[in-house]
Task: structure prediction
Amino acid sequence: MRKVTVVGAGMVGSTVAMRIAESGLADVALIDIQGDLARGKALDISQALPLAGSSSSVEGGEDYRLAEGSEVVVVTAGFPRQPGMSRADLMGRNAEVVRKVVESAAAAAPESVIIMVTNPLDEMSYLAWRVTGWDRHRVMGMAGLLDGSRLAFLAAREVGAHPAQVQPTVLGSHGEAMLPLPRFTTVAGVPLDQLLPPRKVQELCERTREGGAEIVSLLKTGSAYYAPSACAARMVEAVLRDEEYLVTASVLLDGEYGLKGVFMGVPVVLGAGGWKRVVELPLNGEELRALEECARLIGGRMEELDGWLARS
Ligand code: APR
Result:
């Protein structure tokens, strides 16, 4: 059986491991600094597999040798937000965690594709890429699929359509510069801005942007994990099955959309070996300017990380 490693056995990581194991797509290694937590969750997930009809094995622990032979590594280790925090507030604490985790995982699974989930997402994806020094196609962040799924849910409910009939497009950062695009979000082929009045469209975009914070404030401790884990597992599947799946992911741009050297969410074609190419949508001037503003914000924080890496 093929193998996937999930680092971080907290809420997001254990749910990703569960989804992959229950689908029977791959064996799963679940690694956490709290080895017993990972072992306990691995056992618990395993004991549901007879009912799921899956023969995947799930091994938990703190040892990165568990990751050997993995084709995909999903990184969820780190701290989640608490009410009142922005994702960017997590940068200092999570940078330490991500650097250690990615160094160890990349050494154990040097041929893998890395999918980052730890926030702040675009910045942690950049850090993972810097730490590995790998080809840019093998390191990416999961965010656009989640933000899009949030928009699809809200739009379907507003329009009265089946959620699967909504094709959402949300680019930019997984943060304050998130860019939901109503012109490129369609319901059964019809753009959202032709289905709803501008005020309603604006409201849906705003609620999408605040979708994570809304859940954080309701949960009181920790952040969302059902939808994030579904999206991470979907990306793992696209890689393992070499689907050429069109998905928005945070990737390193090299001239696409006129931007270079910055990680941010853009549509990519995802399959074996990572993302294969960026798809460039015909954005208008206003949309392009918003993307550039997003690049400026993320780029500033990437520079902070460069400084931190140089000092440490
Ligand atoms: N190595 C391995 N695991 C670690 C390390 C480390 N250095 N540091 C922390 N962890 C583990 C913790 O032990 C914990 O089990 O990461 C796990 C995080 O789990 P939760 O606190 O439940 O957080 P979760 O909700 O899963 O979110 C994790 O994903 O969506 C993002 O913003 C979210 O950055 C956060 C991450």
